[in-house]
Specification:
Elements lengths: L2 H21 L2 H12 L5 H9 L10 H23 L3 E2 L2 E2 L1 H5 L1 H20 L4 H23 L8 H10 L1 H15 L4 H25 L14 H4 L5 H8 L3 H6 L8 H13 L2 H20 L4 H16 L3
Antiparallel strand pairs: 1-2
Helix pairs in contact: 1-2, 1-3, 1-4, 3-4, 3-9, 3-16, 4-6, 4-9, 7-8, 7-9, 8-9, 9-10, 10-15, 12-14, 12-15, 15-16
Length: 316
């Protein structure tokens, strides 16, 4: 599927989500509409669409399935913002900060339930099992993260487990949704699953590095918002691994309550070169993902390489 064909199908996904917004409650509609206006990459729907081209089955309602993956993603973002008390999302105030926690949680619940209803229409027992396992994995990762709240620096192993359980889980689900619906064989499913796991890690590492960079003009996202939320990200872990006495002292008592101390942590992480190192780790994984894509049939290898290229060139 070339760039143009993929973009056309993604516009169809946007149209479907637009119709879902019109059928939902006001505050759910508000969040879906805001997502569409942000002109995001729609990464997860894109993975559903290109994965469906690897099989022999003609999937007539693939756009609906792709939209369902974006609805699951949106539901997790809403719930994440509530749990982390993140006040901004995509440069605007988070949903719970505008309409209240109760309504935001209900909006996320509705989006998840609606997405599952759409997915069930495909009547693929293996896909539904995989879907439920990934949602369970998402919840477990969130529970473990909550259990370690107050601990600003975690081990690299625990960090990767979180990434695999959250960011990578949804990418794996998106690849499996499209490929299973299209009747892709087991060998290709395993290649896709590994590709998605690698890309999920790289994607999150890049996001982590961005949190330590200057915010874009007119962005409402504050510098080092992840530190304020108490999220242990790769640049901070790399800085801590360096053995630097200053960063260890600054993080010794857990999540800093003052903006001054958060700025000190951010400054030291940047001084130690940890942001650049995190981005280099992400770039290495993206290259590994390109190699993994070469194992796919020629019809799909280019499509998955295009996705990686777009992620490496994204401006956040």
């Amino acid at each position: 599927m070339g760039d143009e064909a993929l973009d056309i199908q993604l516009e169809m996904v946007r149209d479907f989500l637009n119709n879902e917004a019109k059928k939902s409650q006001d505050y759910v509609s508000l969040e879906i509409s805001r997502t569409l206006k942000s002109k995001g990459k729609l990464l997860r729907p894109a993975l559903v669409l290109i994965s469906s081209k690897l099989g022999n089955n003609l999937v007539t309602d693939i756009v609906e399935l792709a939209a369902a993956m974006e609805m699951i993603h949106l539901a997790t973002l809403i719930h994440d913002d509530v749990i982390d008390d993140s006040l901004h999302r995509r440069g605007e105030r988070a949903l719970h900060a505008r309409i209240g926690v109760a309504k935001a949680v209900l909006a996320g619940d509705w989006l998840l339930a609606r997405a599952l209803s759409i997915a069930v229409r495909h009547h693929d027992a293996s896909l539904l099992l995989f879907l439920n396992e990934r949602i369970e994995e998402l919840c477990e990762a969130e529970i473990k993260q909550d259990a370690s709240s107050g601990k600003l620096v975690i081990s690299r192993e625990e960090y990767l487990q979180r990434v695999d359980g959250k960011t990578a889980a949804l990418l794996r689900l998106s690849c499996r949704a499209g490929s299973s619906a299209a009747g892709v064989d087991l060998q290709i499913l395993e290649i896709l699953d590994k590709w998605a796991l690698i890309v999920g890690r790289a994607f999150q590492m890049d996001n982590d590095a961005f949190d330590y960079q200057e915010p874009q003009k007119n962005s409402a996202k504050g510098i080092s918002s992840d530190i304020r939320a108490g999220l242990s990200t790769l640049p901070l872990i790399i800085a801590w691994e360096s053995g630097d006495s200053k960063i260890r002292k600054l993080t010794r008592n857990g999540i800093p309550s003052s903006s001054r101390k958060r700025c000190q942590i951010r400054k030291r992480v940047v001084e130690l070169g940890a942001v650049g190192l995190a981005r280099r780790e992400a770039a290495a994984l993206y290259r590994k993902a390109q190699d993994q894509a070469l194992l796919l049939p020629s019809s799909g290898s280019r499509d998955f390489s295009i996705i990686v290229d777009r992620l490496m060139d994204r401006d956040f």
